[in-house]
Design goal:
Layout: E1 2-5, H1 11-14, E2 45-59, H2 61-68, H3 78-87, E3 93-112, E4 115-127, H4 130-142, E5 159-164, E6 167-172, E7 176-179, E8 183-188, E9 197-206, E10 222-233, E11 236-247
Parallel strand pairs: 1-2
Antiparallel strand pairs: 2-3, 3-4, 3-5, 4-7, 4-8, 5-6, 8-9, 9-10, 10-11
Length: about 250
């Protein structure tokens, strides 16, 4: 189980990764499972389940300028977005305030020596996260981290507005839950070892069956491949993963 909180980020901080694969829509894309260079015994089954909770508050620089003019808490409304568009004509923008909760399940089995197949399923929920909003703000106050304008919006809001490369989304107070896109994968782990080291390769595809109207799916498939290198170093273990994902026309 994991929990993460994103206090606020500007466009400069977002440059290392495109917004499309950050929160809140990062879960839309194929993320290959973190793996070790091993597979279950022949015809045996492996199961796993986990959850993640991500409290998000992110915005572009121009949206941050709008928030900076506030002196008290209030929800972000369509009127605010109209003001933003008027002040920055033709510019891209984004603002997301909400909490993404995901529950995952995964199973795999070895069908022939050195080759396993498996699948991962998920249920995604997007809500206001009012309880965690208060916790994050309290944590920031305790350690003097600053609120990055969290303290001028209403807690527990579910707000998603953006314009990126001509695509526009405006969603206010729209909590939702649904099935995420499942992934199916094959894992090859050769029996040959290099002394304490062993390796494996995985290929996977994401099936677009989730709801696009709820923004729980891109409606398109993703494909990815990755490798794992695992070293057994006595009482310690080193596990290295690397890979690439191809998104097919996803926005």
């Amino acid at each position: 189980m994991s929990a993460r909180a994103h206090a606020g980020s500007s466009a400069d901080q977002d440059k290392p990764l495109p917004f499309a694969v950050q929160v809140p829509f990062g879960f839309l894309f194929l993320h290959l499972p973190v793996l070790s260079a091993g597979i279950p015994p022949l015809h045996a089954w492996e199961f796993g389940a986990w959850t993640s909770v991500t409290n998000n508050f992110i915005y572009s620089d121009n949206a941050g300028e709008l928030l900076a003019t506030r002196t008290s808490r209030a929800p972000v409304t369509q009127s605010d977005i109209d003001t933003l568009v008027t002040a920055h004509p033709g510019e891209d923008y984004y603002f997301f305030d909400g909490q993404v909760t995901a529950v995952y399940g995964r199973f795999a089995t070895t069908v022939v020596p050195s080759l396993a197949v498996g699948a991962r399923f998920s249920v995604i929920g997007i809500s206001g996260g009012q309880g965690m909003d208060g916790f994050v703000e309290g944590f920031h106050s305790l350690f003097g981290l600053g609120q990055s304008y969290r303290d001028v919006v209403t807690r527990g809001e579910t707000t998603s507005v953006l314009r990126i490369d001509g695509d526009e989304v405006s969603s206010f107070e729209n909590p939702r839950v649904g099935i995420g896109d499942p992934i199916v994968y094959a894992l090859w782990a050769p029996e040959h070892r290099m002394e304490a080291w062993r390796m494996s390769l995985i290929s996977a595809i994401k099936a677009p069956i989730g709801s696009t109207s709820k923004r729980l799916s891109t409606g398109r498939a993703d494909f990815g491949t990755a490798f794992a290198l695992t070293g057994d170093l006595g009482r310690r273990c080193v596990n290295v993963n690397g890979g690439v994902t191809l998104t097919f026309g996803a926005r």
